[in-house]
Amino acid sequence: ILNYSCFKDENNNQYYVGKNALQNNYLSFKLAQPHDLWLHIKDLSGAHVIIKSNDINDDILLKGARLALAFSKATINNNYEVQYTLVKNLKKIKGQLGRVSFTTHQSIIVLNDQQILKELEQIK
């Protein structure tokens, strides 16, 4: 049931990807810590991505955003907005498994080229 995916980059930063509401809920509210980074495509169905890193920089953020697009309803070779915030800013929406609201966030515009799946090592 909780068959979420996990990827790591060359610096051993870990990226957890939920592929359904149950996995998204688990990752965002059980596995994630308050200072982990959460990402999700804006206005489309898709994965919650949790980044576990001691030092999140622009490269790590971009990798997480690209994963959020790769596991979403986004079409290939188009740009999309990905929202991100610290996990501590997330709140469950009562009665809607896997849905969240947040008090503050930032956004990044990213091309959905699916190449991220070849660049990161899948470890789960």
Question: Key features?
Answer:
124 residues; alpha+beta; two-stranded antiparallel sheet; 3 helices; 23% helix; globular
Topology:
Blueprint: E1 5-8, E2 14-17, H1 21-31, E3 37-41, E4 49-52, H2 58-70, E5 79-86, E6 90-92, E7 100-102, E8 106-111, H3 116-119, E9 121-122
Antiparallel strand pairs: 1-2, 1-9, 2-4, 3-4, 3-5, 5-8, 6-7
Report the mean per-residue pLDDT as an integer: 94
Order of helices and strands: EEHEEHEEEEHE
What's the end-to-end separation, in Å?
14 Å
Q: In angstroms, what is the radius of gyration?
A: 13 Å
Largest sheet: 7 strands, antiparallel
What percent of residues are in strands?
25-35%
Spatially, the strands of the biggest sheet line up as 8-5-3-4-2-1-9
What overall form do the CA principal axes indicate?
Answer: globular
User: What's the helical proportion of residues?
Assistant: 10-25%
Class from secondary-structure proportions:
alpha+beta
Tally the helices: what do you get? 3
Number of strands: 9
* pLDDT < 50 stretches: none
